[in-house]
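agent> fetching stored inputs for the (2S)-2-hydroxybutanedioic acid docking request
agent> found them:
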Amino acid sequence: MGRVSKTLFGQLTALPADPILSLSTAFAAETNPNKIDLGVGIYRDEAGRTPVMAAVLEAEERLLHSEGSKAYMVPAGDEAFNSGIRDLLLGKDHAVLSQARVNSIQTLGGCGALRIGAELIKRGNSASRVWVSDPTWANHLPLLGSAGLAIEKYPYYDYEGRRIDFDAMLSALQQVEAGDVVLLHGCCHNPSGADLNLEQWQKLTELALEKRFTPFIDVAYQGLAIGLEEDAAGWRLMSSKVPEMLIAISCSKNFGLYRERTGVLCVQAESKRQAQAIKSQVLSIARQSYSMPPSHGALIAGMILGDESLYAQWTSELSEMRRRIVAMREVLVERLGDGCSDRNFDFIRSEFGMFSFLGIGSEQVVRLREEFGIYMVDSTRINVAGLNRSNIEYFTESLSALLCQSRYCRLDNSGFI
Ligand code: LMR
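agent> prediction call returned; pasting tokens
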């Protein structure tokens, strides 16, 4: 039993700040006029803003005139949204949809989907272990772990080779047991940007069938790697073969609905009957947690997905975002190549989505922050979307200056760290 204090909360101590979100607060207080925020994963345009997408603005306008009530949503949320997301995720003609084996509920963002999914796993098998990639998004551990599930890690990113260490991943996953869950990033792996190819998805599917584990796919960036369809190929393939699967979807990044907390949990069951049982379980978890979801973001995304002109507008904006990130990756690699560093940053070109590890020293991350006002996660993860044609020169010159200094100092053996 813990130490008894005079008051209920008297024994609680302060926790360390969130490693990602705390960067925004620190950045806001930064006084360097050249400061650059490469921390939290938020899309930014050339002007450094996170604009509301035009398709979203148009849907909001329509909603303003059509939403006649603020009565509760039903616990599963908006059905037009749920089914629109299911189709986007799996493709309208996917067999698991026609077999009625997939149900979905609207959640409080992708985090809500991960958390409800974790509670569902616990109901299915409280001894289930959830295997997550090493590295993974920092919030996966508390989101899944605080539901009471044991977390295991499988090796994923080879920091030396700057690629996925697929052999090590497969070999670690040999230890997975029936009833365990393996969490995979659908695309735009956070934090590394290193994505599985289709052949690797195929091998993991075979392993899931052999070991009888359940895949849990975190889809937070559909459309931001190669394209809406291309990004989905891996999990669609897996879904067509495995009996059960969970998918957590976030609309924060691809619809830019960050603060509207808009997401979906999709659960694929072995049969239609089982899907119905699971849905009742998921709804009861939601009822015990927050009762029913908010409406705004889901009504907007649902309207966009169901309207031809809004959909065309949205996909064009999404492509523009993706193209800008890819262009920034190119410029970044070129400029770093021109610097005096002997390091090779070419790997940044072959990674996807917002994130890549720079792979510099932790002391250099601190110096970039303190001396240059450039903020990134301590792991050296940068949000490439935080770069633009106005700030990239300052960024690459600052980084090159530090890297050159460290190289020469190492050669000098002067003890520079
Ligand atoms: C990130 O990884 O930076 C984003 O997903 C924001 C978050 O909640 O951590």
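agent> quick read of the result: The chain has two domains: 19-51+312-405, 72-306.
agent> awaiting further instructions
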